[in-house]
């Protein structure tokens, strides 16, 4: 199963369960297993993590990600600051019943129904315990802002924390996955197309821009688009522009020039010519016929 397929049943909806700056002196946290994800930023000092029997050493500026089901212990030899977040990545209807496990809690058989899916169990995913980040300062900024917002009692700040958490997970997946999207014909979701085109009708929209948004090459995008909508992208865009033009002709007193501009036509001549080719009459004739039998 890949991320795309899992997202159909368990959408990517990060949920922060616990988060703090964690400024401490030397400490040792005995072995436990996780139900959720634990992300740790070594802001100051050092951290030793033994995860599933492998010893990892972290220095300032590095990030550690422990995935659900990982048996681990944590140790810091001196003063340290390790901001962290316990969070779900995938939606679970009973997420509020889950919890950060306690030291020594290794048998989670009674809580398997709360266990989050592991990213590394998905096709194309290989996210190490010691994250390999392209922009570590971006991660640090997102995490610290997220913690600050989550610790606030203001509901809007807490909502902001969830948004920042989503950005953080998005960045981690992008930096560490080789195949987050399936390439089977039915797996390219273009549900965004109608709303995107409707919002940008007055603008010049290129195949390259839309292909980039769909994470496809322009030639592949044309193929997938035609299979989904039955028309090439340009022809489909023209049909949407003409539908909107008809609506404006019916319901407003806007001039032809204004309608042409609002619908993304270069000028009145282009608008009238295209309208007549597709509708069989000029925009003016169409407007005059409103309310009259054709």
From TrEMBL:
<keyword id="KW-0238">DNA-binding</keyword>
<dbReference type="GO" id="GO:0003700">
    <property type="term" value="F:DNA-binding transcription factor activity"/>
</dbReference>
<dbReference type="Pfam" id="PF02311">
    <property type="entry name" value="AraC_binding"/>
</dbReference>
<keyword id="KW-0010">Activator</keyword>
<keyword id="KW-0804">Transcription</keyword>
<dbReference type="InterPro" id="IPR050204">
    <property type="entry name" value="AraC_XylS_family_regulators"/>
</dbReference>
<dbReference type="InterPro" id="IPR037923">
    <property type="entry name" value="HTH-like"/>
</dbReference>
<dbReference type="InterPro" id="IPR018062">
    <property type="entry name" value="HTH_AraC-typ_CS"/>
</dbReference>
<dbReference type="Pfam" id="PF12833">
    <property type="entry name" value="HTH_18"/>
</dbReference>
<dbReference type="InterPro" id="IPR018060">
    <property type="entry name" value="HTH_AraC"/>
</dbReference>
<dbReference type="GO" id="GO:0043565">
    <property type="term" value="F:sequence-specific DNA binding"/>
</dbReference>
<keyword id="KW-0805">Transcription regulation</keyword>
<protein>
    <submittedName>
        <fullName>AraC family transcriptional regulator</fullName>
    </submittedName>
</protein>
<dbReference type="InterPro" id="IPR003313">
    <property type="entry name" value="AraC-bd"/>
</dbReference>
<dbReference type="InterPro" id="IPR020449">
    <property type="entry name" value="Tscrpt_reg_AraC-type_HTH"/>
</dbReference>
<dbReference type="InterPro" id="IPR014710">
    <property type="entry name" value="RmlC-like_jellyroll"/>
</dbReference>
<dbReference type="InterPro" id="IPR009057">
    <property type="entry name" value="Homeodomain-like_sf"/>
</dbReference>
<feature type="domain" description="HTH araC/xylS-type">
    <location>
        <begin position="191"/>
        <end position="289"/>
    </location>
</feature>
